């Protein structure tokens, strides 16, 4: 008999009851944040799209096709990217020949993303 993780069970219950990601959109009340000409665009273009493109889709993730829009178009994808970059998890450390950003670049892109994901609408604390 296999065990189901408690977090997996919670996610399944929330999905089945209609309490999915849409209810917790981190950019729901935020202004549109274009990605073009930003540190995020530069970092993803330079370090991520060799693996996360429409053809390869490593981890079933295509970031290349999401670069022309706004952060708000795919808030959950970009939130996951922000966590991976903040923790220096991507690009992978153990993969030979994969270029990784320096620490200052990780900090700059993480700060840019955090500023937007922590946006507080006017009049709210």
Automatic annotation (TrEMBL):
Residues 48-94 form the Cytochrome C Planctomycete-type domain. The keyword Electron transport does not apply. Residues 1-23 form the signal peptide. Keywords: Signal. This is Cytochrome C Planctomycete-type domain-containing protein.
């Amino acid at each position: 008999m296999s065990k189901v993780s408690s977090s997996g069970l919670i996610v399944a219950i929330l999905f089945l009851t209609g309490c999915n990601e849409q209810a917790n959109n981190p950019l729901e009340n935020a202004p549109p944040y274009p990605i073009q000409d930003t540190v995020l665009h530069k970092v993803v273009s330079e370090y991520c799209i060799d693996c996360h493109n429409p053809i390869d889709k490593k981890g079933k993730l295509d970031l290349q096709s999401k670069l022309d829009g706004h952060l708000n178009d795919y808030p959950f994808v970009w939130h996951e990217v922000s966590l991976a970059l903040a923790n220096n998890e991507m690009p992978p450390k153990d993969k030979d020949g994969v270029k990784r950003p320096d620490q200052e670049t990780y900090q700059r892109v993480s700060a840019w993303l955090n500023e937007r994901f922590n946006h507080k609408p006017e009049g709210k604390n």
